[in-house]
């Protein structure tokens, strides 16, 4: 049984190394592109016209960002089985996996919040524009 468990752990490590390339690509995109683009949408302009332009640009970015989030989440699902292993040999991989997971969750949450904030701001400005 101990031998079988060790073989399973080694198989998980090999699987992790295959999936890690995807994690690295997603992580790199989040750090180098995603977070910077999200920061650009923190301060929204004061006119409806500029808000509509910002929303359009954000939607284009959102399509790409959502694809990276999806790919990252799929890769994490492949590694769900790591929860069952607690050996010291696997620990360093679990730490990496947790780091990727936290980064992805944080980015996806920020993406959702920005999407919601931009949509609500545009709706509010459209409402005020109609009232005038």
Automatic annotation (TrEMBL):
InterPro entries assigned: Rho_GEF_signaling-related
Keyword Coiled coil part of the UniProt annotation: yes
Residue ranges of coiled coil: 90-117
Keywords: Coiled coil
Top-level taxon of origin: Eukaryota
Name recorded for this polypeptide: PKHG4 protein
UniProt organism field: Thinocorus orbignyianus
Record lineage: Eukaryota, Metazoa, Chordata, Craniata, Vertebrata
Gene: Plekhg4
């Amino acid at each position: 049984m101990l031998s079988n468990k060790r073989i399973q752990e080694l198989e998980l490590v090999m699987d992790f190394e295959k999936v890690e390339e995807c994690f690295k690509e997603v992580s790199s995109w989040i750090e180098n592109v995603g977070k910077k683009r999200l920061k650009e949408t923190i301060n929204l302009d004061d006119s409806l016209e500029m808000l509509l332009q910002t929303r359009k640009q954000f939607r284009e970015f959102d399509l790409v960002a959502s694809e990276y989030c999806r790919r990252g989440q799929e890769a994490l699902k492949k590694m769900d089985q790591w929860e069952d292993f607690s050996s010291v040999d696997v620990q360093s991989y679990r730490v990496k996996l947790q780091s990727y997971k936290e980064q992805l969750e944080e980015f996806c949450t920020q993406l959702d919040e920005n999407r919601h904030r931009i949509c609500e701001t545009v709706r509010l400005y459209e409402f005020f524009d109609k009232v005038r």
